[in-house]
Amino acid sequence: MGSDGTELLNVMEENILIIIPTYNAKEGIVENLKKIQQAVPNAYILVVDDSSPDGTADLVKKHFANDKHISLLIRKGKGGRGSAILAGFKEGLKNKKINYFIEMDADLCHDPKYIKPMVAACQKVDVVIASRYLPSSKITGWNIKRKLMSFSINSFAKLLLHIPISDYTNGFRCYSRKAVAFVTMHEIQSRGYIVLSEIAYICYKNGFLFAQVPINFHFKEVSKSNLNWKEIKEALSTIIRLRFANEKK
Ligand SMILES: Nc1nc2c(ncn2[C@@H]2O[C@H](COP(=O)(O)OP(=O)(O)O)[C@@H](O)[C@H]2O)c(=O)[nH]1
Ligand SMILES: [Mg+2]
Fold first, then answer.
1. Which atom of ligand 1 is nearest to the CA of 226?
2. Which one of 97, 124, 157, 248 is separated from 65 by 20 to 30 angstroms, measured CA to CA?
3. Helices (H), 103-194
């Protein structure tokens, strides 16, 4: 196996769908899509845009209108990062050839070089987490406030949910088709970033296996973050709800 695990990749790139949720992501999206295409030229990409006021969707259309590997799902209004991913899952499942679903952010924090190692790992499990919190992972570019916020929500999720993963909130993952089909049949109640933890919890409680890939997470200020207090409140209440809903069973 190569150091990045890519030699294990026994999968055609045509069987991979990369879902990118976008809201006011025009600064990073074109460069990101080009980088993804360099890493996995034959994979499919679905951008799920919530009618971004900054014209993200128009920019994608302008640059990639004739690219059969890139498509765009436009939703009416800001519905939350997680709900955009769920819409992307449903769309992706319509293509029977897709066996691996990647989700990643638009703003260049998630390096496409990890896509192949993640898919390689996903051949043996159902959910692969690109983790910022493994011993060999690295986070650069975040200020102390942002580090503290991520660390606190992760610690809270860990304390209550006990899933064997080190990163509950990084939106860079690979799922098997089986896991995606299962998740879309569940009623996911959260809408925003914390859908990531809700999906992980549902998969864990239903016996799906997890693996983790350490990553270097590099934050570049290409666009304004969509993270706000409403998202943080939803994150905390969702973690508590998941824990207590489970206790009742
Ligand atoms: N479709 C959609 N995408 C969103 C929404 N909120 C955030 N995103 C996207 O989710 C990803 C992560 O959001 P970002 O603002 O970078 O959050 P941060 O990295 O936590 O600061 C980016 O690709 C955003 O464009 C939303 O309501 N709808
Ligand atoms: Mg971001």
1. 15
2. 97
3. 115-122, 144-161, 177-185
Does 100 sit in the ligand 1 pocket, CB within 6 Å?
no
Atom 6 of ligand 1, residue of closest alpha carbon = 81
Question: For residue 48, which atom of ligand 1 is closest to its CA?
Answer: 1
Q: What is the DSSP letter of 108?
A: S
pTM: predicted TM-score of the whole model, two decimal places: 0.94
| Bridge-based pairing state of the strands 127-131 and 173-176 | antiparallel
What is the tens place of the pLDDT at every residue in 104-148? 999 999 999 999 999 999 999 999 999 999 999 999 999 999 999
- Determine which residue's CA is closest to atom 12 belonging to ligand 1: 105
Angle between helical axes of 195-205 and 177-185 (0-180°, round to 10): 100
pLDDT at 249: 44
| pLDDT tens digit sequence for 136-187 | 999 999 999 999 999 999 999 999 999 999 999 999 999 999 999 999 999 8
Q: Which ligand is nearest to the CA of 46?
A: 1
**Domain 12-248, classified CATH 3.30.365.10, yes or no:** no
DSSP line for 66-98: T-TTEEEEE-SS---HHHHHHHHHHHHHTSTT-
